[in-house]
Amino acid sequence: MSGLYTCITCRVGFSTLDLQRGHYKTDWHRYNLKRKVAELPPVTADTFQQKVLAQREKAIEDEEATTATCEICNKHFNSKNQYENHLKSKKHKDVVTKHTSKLREEIEKNKEKITENAEGTDNSDLPENEKRLMKDCVKRKHLKTKYQLPVVRRSS
Ligand SMILES: [Zn+2]
Ligand SMILES: [Zn+2]
């Protein structure tokens, strides 16, 4: 610390009273005051500057985030309204229908793969409680199918 006048909060020194007074009005000083309340150490003017810049960039990003994208159709929209209109459009609904049926196919395929793999997996390296949890799941699955069976059974 140097100078006759100091700011204890920011741990800086000033050569004149005016400079010190001016400093008390800066955002940097206010920011450090808030940090002090939160029991955090003060940041230097440089760090504060960087934080401000980062904040600005984030604000720009947030603004960009308000523009919507339909990931299914891979289309970008400049406003939420445009996006909502697109969601209602037949074109989008067609794509969604196609997309979901394709997704379902993929899920079914993966399911088959998962069950195939599950048969051969050894759970010995799992912790005891996790093993038990898995057993419970399996049990529950069995119970479910048991109770569901009479419903799907066809009366002959
Ligand atoms: Zn200060
Ligand atoms: Zn779409």
Automatic annotation (TrEMBL):
GO terms for cellular component: preribosome, large subunit precursor. Residues 109-130 are annotated as: Disordered. It comes from the Eukaryota. Keywords: Ribosome biogenesis. Residues 70-92 form the C2H2-type domain. Transmembrane segments: none annotated. GO terms for molecular function: nucleic acid binding; zinc ion binding. One of its GO terms (biological process) is ribosomal large subunit biogenesis. Belongs to the REI1 family. This is REI1. It comes from Mytilus edulis.
